[in-house]
């Protein structure tokens, strides 16, 4: 049963990364779209897939359950890939190839529209799978059974392994087939893989364990906000008179922040029935515990906002960095590395940094300082620092590449410069992501209300989606400000005639500004009163956060990972 969940995840990663990592080369090379247009199509597609995870989780929690959401998501993604396959197979759905010495014909509105339709159908399917597969896997274990709880730890280790496996297969094998066999075969293989995976998944239907839909935390947040607005004109009473029907062990102490939300827990004459008892309409009256849980979520939002820009940096690996690689010498003997396969170095960066952190940094910090590694806020900061370094390195590499292009002429298909100079920018972003991803995951899970852990994970994933859309927005702004004329514009149809290094430098500057903003947000957060206790500031080495991390034993860590994937 668990094996089918793992296979579904491998298939999803194989398809999404294999398509997304190499899509920009198809858009520029076959569809003849300008570099900036192609980059925005890629980032908008990936951004939609992650943002829709909130919708997928909402549907699963409230209406369909994880099993049916996975089924529908897999079918939807397979349909999207099928449409993408058709768009590459039918000659009328893409422009003719460029003839020698002639101007390339750009894809028309119908051709681009069909391609976009296929991509967004895929994104909708991906959202259903990303939001539910790991959670459905944990549903197969009995939390009250000690043996099954220990088996769940192994499930997570295998789950993260298959994520890496699916991604590596996608950016290597699948991209190689796309570039050197045909796009139709490359995308068609994904359709066949989904068909066999679904058959295996459905064959175990009677043996799965299912959990009933419990409702989405998003609805709870809406209840509190609407109730607070409904009673906004009422005078705030003492907190000990506020309504709270939660059981004693689940109650959260009242805090003196965001007091306007407290009005959602005020009982007025309209909340009493004819028998004199309180009639709770959740759109007009909420418990104080619900209100405090919403406050906890709101406190997460500054950190949420300040971590978005890292994923804007990450978006460059799927767009302009791949275009850079496609213009350079990529041959190793008789083998030529596909441009999109350079994302394998980014994945290697994640794996190397994660292993180094677990095997070297954590033991050293335990031995010398008695600390269980860096805190989640520190890891996020480290990730942001690496994003700045990555863009500086990328700008330097692009300067070397464009100098060669200017000396040899921009029309050269392959510039006489080794693609190896691009490896550091992919690798450094991978290192940064290993810290950023784990730090964000830890922060949003441990700082969210217990009943809202699945939604807090959705918030974390939404930072990735918003980061991709920010990338698209920046590309549009830079294009409008610098123009499109070759030689002066930063981002041109052919990157050999642009000044991409300026764009990378701009991203480095903006990332530094974001790091300052993040530091202020983190400082504010750790100073926030929580349950009447003042937490020490970020400047004092996050001591309270470190003590919290040291108290977490292995069982608690496994439990947090389970809540994350749900």
From TrEMBL:
One of its GO terms (molecular function) is transmembrane transporter activity. The keyword Membrane applies. Keywords: Membrane, Transmembrane, Transmembrane helix. Belongs to the major facilitator superfamily. Proton-dependent oligopeptide transporter (POT/PTR) (TC 2.A.17) family. This is Uncharacterized protein. It is a multi-pass membrane protein. It is found in: Membrane. It holds the Pfam family PTR2. The chain crosses the membrane at residues 41-60, 67-90, 110-129, 159-178, 184-202, 303-322, 342-360, 380-397, 417-437, 458-481, 501-521. GO terms for cellular component: membrane. InterPro entries: MFS_trans_sf, POT_fam.
